[in-house]
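The data are quoted verbatim here:
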Amino acid sequence: MDLNGLALNYNNFTIDGIFDSKTSNATKNFQDRFEIKSDGIVRSLTWKLLIENVKAVQKLLNSYGYHTGYPDGWFGSHTTDAVRKFQNHNGLSLSGIVDPRTRRKLFNPHPHPV
């Protein structure tokens, strides 16, 4: 869910709960992006980077009034809902995913708060 929610699902596949070759390839792409060992295995460093990225999104959303709950690093339903509300208030597609347009608006110093 974290790769998808952060719009890092490079292969654009549906989340089905199965860690198959598509998931492994998306993980490798994420690892390449952060210049860590690209083996498609989610080890501690990969988890840490995913969690840190999700926490950064959650903290920003919370600071703008889009409540995700405690920033726990998990891109769950509360974070997805907060992203959709943020997207709605900023004229973006309501995907609940932090795609490149959402990321630019979110990390812009003057986004539209609630």
Remarks:
- The chain has five helices and no strands.
- The first helix runs from residue 2 to 5.
- The chain has one domain: 2-106.
